[in-house]
Amino acid sequence: MVIKILLIVAIAIQTVATVYALKLVRTTKYNSVWILFIAGFSLLSVERVIQFMLVSGQSVPPATFAYLGVVISVCLSIGVMYAHKLFKYIGRLNRQRQLLNKRILTAVLRTEEKSRSRFSKELHDGLGPLLSSARMSLSALARDGQNPEQQEIIANTTYVIDEAIRSLREISNNLSPHVLSDFGLARGVQNFISKSAAMHDVKIRFTTNLRGERYDPDVEVIVYRVICELINNSLKHAACSEINLSLSLSGGTLALDYSDNGRGFNPQAMMDCGMGLSNIASRINSLGGTLDITSSKGRGMRAAIRVNTRPEPAAKSSNRKNRHADGGV
Fold this sequence. Notes:
Number of domains: 2
Number of helices: 10
Strand content: 5-15%
Number of strands: 5
Largest sheet: 5 strands, mixed
Structural class: alpha+beta
Helix content: 55-70%
Strand order of the largest sheet: 1-2-3-5-4
Mean pLDDT: 78
CATH class of the largest domain: Alpha Beta
Shape: elongated
């Protein structure tokens, strides 16, 4: 009796598996995988039915089990081989999707930087000369014999224009840092740190073995933006008194190690809700680099970033095509 119950359970399980395999026939490209599994499970169910008949005392030709065993083995074996192809196909689709996402992200970042550069140029070359002309006109008025009240108004207006010119230069530089584009990553970072340290009561230590090396513009701009984001986050949110930053090159790998002694946070929670960490992760991912952030309450934070500065041949070819399409820039 127990054997009959077990055989009935086995038949039921194999029938359910056959039904699920039927539902998957049109789900994937490799339909033959599921067809073979359907055949295998169906024949297994037939085999269990024959066994049930034997247990019930009915006679079955001896060769039946042998033929069924061979057919079942062939169906399942070929099905497993096709399943292997299916997994390879899925893996290839995943790699293509990751590559497409990376290309889209890179294109978005490049477009963002081009927009920043264009706005910076328009501010610097358009609004800047107008403010300078207004200042010169006020200086000419000041040389005419004006009474003290008028002289004070002119002086105040000149001061306001000077502040506007200074702010304009600062905004233009933040949009597209000229030091970075003219002198490279190390000088650009040092320039940003000097300005940040002058405006905040925070000690920022910066060490680097870089000199005047130049890298792919995408690498320089993205690493620079990441460093700026990390420093701004520490200054605005961490309530820290000390920031340590190390930027070094070793064997074609650019290593960025960053830490502060601030209040700390939950990295995963911050990655989900913002504070710039998700933006940093996206930028590093667009370069194919790695990002490791560790932090806990009251223990500050540490970030380790590694980026390969030697682009792959395919990437080089793609960059050359993009520059040619942009007019040889």
